[in-house]
Amino acid sequence: MAETLFALDRDNYRECQSLFRGKREQEYYRGDYWVEDASEVDVRAERRAAGPHSIIRIRSATRQFFRRTRQHIREDGTDLCVLWFVKRGRLVFSNQCGNQVAQPGDFLITRSMSPFFIECDPDENGLHEVLNVTVPTHLLRTHIVHDVATSLFVAMRRELVIAENILSEVLADEGVTAEDLARTLVEAALSAVGHAVRQNGAAVPARQTVAERRLEEVLRFIEIHLSDPTMSTATVSRGCGISPRYLSFLLRTSGTSFSELIWQQRLDRAKEWLANSGPDDISISEIAYGVGFKSPAHFSRMFKRVFAVNPREFRLSATGGNDPAQGGAEPHFECVLEVPTTLQ
Fold this sequence. Notes:
Elements (H helix, E strand, L loop, with lengths): L2 E6 L7 H4 L12 E4 L7 E8 L2 E8 L3 E5 L1 H6 L4 E9 L1 E6 L2 E5 L4 E5 L4 E6 L6 E9 H4 L10 E4 L3 H15 L6 H21 L10 H15 L8 H8 L3 H10 L4 H18 L8 H7 L5 H12 L3 H9 L4 H4 L17
Antiparallel strand pairs: 1-3, 2-5, 3-4, 4-11, 5-10, 6-9, 6-11, 7-8, 7-10, 9-12
Helix pairs in contact: 4-5, 6-7, 7-8
């Protein structure tokens, strides 16, 4: 549920420097923040936390200014990125590279490790509004590999509209959405932003070769049919309308073989499933069959060979649960060698 991060009016606007980061000074990063000494002062910020991220909406009828200097960076080395969705008014961003102006509908990313100056101006109706998302830079890099050394402006794309809608819904939620789901939704929005950044400036998508399209079809077919224990090169090649020899060629170009790809995908899906479920949710046997293993024993052996722990031990470590063996809730399978004949 959203909470008030700060609210400024004529009575307290001179205290904005000590208020804009919240009561515990945990939001944003250090910098000089001030608002214009105007006849009307009205600045309000709402915040919703989602894991390490914060969604913040700032609405203002007053000009605002923020400055991050090298002195601030020396005093506060927090490497944080802020995603800006400009809703109303305009945002003027200045750094050593020059000035850029963001209008309603524009999107930009700023980073705390480089000095900059921001001016937020209300529109002709006297209103300014932005939606911010604060993201630790090391986490943002899982979605955006582009080096955001100073700032990054991105042309408005459909993916950014989707991301903004998701974030706005999470912020507006009245406590119905669980915290873990809120974090998942924010991660989905960040993925959409990452896709927009990757596609930015590409007027025409890169053309795929025939082999690349065929490989995509193969990988999609395998993912859909991963739970089928009888899946083989014959079934995949037949399902994709190609020969087994061409299938082997496509996989070699991606640096893998059919059996390696299948087992790795099955084990990765099972590992993710184990990490996000407990014995009362689903048994290890069901997970083994669900990802296409013919027996829980074979699954246990393969899992331990790759990850150095058996599935039960991994689940206990990942979920922090009690040992199901103590209560008999979930059996522990001994490792028994079973040859996967369908993948030969």
